[in-house]
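Entry for magnesium ion complex. Fields follow.
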Amino acid sequence: MAKTVRKIGLSLGADICWPICYEHIVKQLGLDVAVERVTIEPFDLRQPCSYDVVIDRLTHWYHPSREWIKKAVVMDDLYVFNNPWSVQSNEKQTTYCAMMHLGMPIPNTWLVPPRSYEPLPDLQPTLKSYAKLFDLGALGNAVGYPLFMKPYDGGGWKGVSRIPDEATLRTGYDSSGKLVMHLQKAVEPYDRFVRCIGLGPQTKLVRYDPTAPLHDRYTMAKEFVSADEAQLLQDTCLTINAFFGWDFNSCESLRGTTDGVWYPIDFANPCPDSQVTSLHYHFPWLVMANVRWSLFCAMTDRPMRKTLDWEPFYAIAKTDQPYRDKLRGYARIAAERFDTHRFEEFCAKKLANLDDIALEFFGTPIARDAVRQKVAALFPPHEIEPFTELFWNRIQAWRSDVQAARA
Ligand SMILES: Nc1ncnc2c1ncn2[C@@H]1O[C@H](COP(=O)(O)OP(=O)(O)OP(=O)(O)O)[C@@H](O)[C@H]1O
Ligand SMILES: [Mg+2]
């Protein structure tokens, strides 16, 4: 007998706020869908998996769950976002290389061997035979100053520093320990910094301010790029996400002041910010995008693409079209892979009441309490109330803007 109730699992770490909102909204939609939080426990490799879809926020660092998810994809036809093999193997470095190959204007980047190593038995013979002495100063000149030194597999700004000159490069490298570093030409000056969040075929552009305190980095600016630029940034994000099999990712690009070119600088973020304490005004968008995409995947039995097929992208890259035309071609592949057309039909047909439900939900005490719980987990006691109020007011500003746009 065909299964009627679809089951979605939430594989969570420190997430507090969005799952509460997600669970309430899905419940109010009144569909044949059950949502459950995935627990951590021993598992028999042959035990069946009861979930149709898992939204995974944990396995990039918690490996028992990662192996359970990989088993469930391989053996039980689970759909998970994101593809765990791709998260495991495609670091910032590979994403730069692949997108350079597709023609994206990634700033000039070098990889340097680390300053120091774990003393493994084979280390000395290997380095003695094969490690070439190199001139760090010459590398700095080849990249050009200012540059950014940052780990090849980085995240969370760990080990990132801006290097204005050779002396700083030398001291920075000397204190970089065992990290394997990139030296990347700085995009400076730049006049726009945009994060494009992608969730399935859905995208959201947010102007970002890396100099602001954490709660103000995702700005509430509106109309900060032209329509053509917005399309370029969306096409860029969807190309990257389709290429790497990431349903959920965020792509950072900077617009150079002098040449007006958009340079993607960091787009291997397959577990992006999802907390109200970062996203605030944009938080309802994220929750709703998650609801739409996960329900589409669960209710249409979307098959998981277990292996990545890069050939169609490479075939376009080989042509001699201008880059912008190639990018349109990549974006068409992305639209096929994310089933954009069918997704939009599904939303219109099955989720027509989602906007109303979400609009109302984000004004309820349950939503406010979800915000408060996340704030309480991160902020000192005396800041809990003021920051809860701040984030709550921004969500209310989102509600007013949506209502005004409808009027
Ligand atoms: N090439 C560059 N030109 C200008 N600024 C840069 C460049 N590379 C990095 N930065 C600055 O350094 C910050 C951190 O770099 P990056 O995003 O690559 O590291 P990360 O550890 O992945 O950070 P996150 O997890 O926040 O995305 C960027 O947000 C940006 O402000
Ligand atoms: Mg970044």
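NOTE: The longest helix spans residues 381-406.
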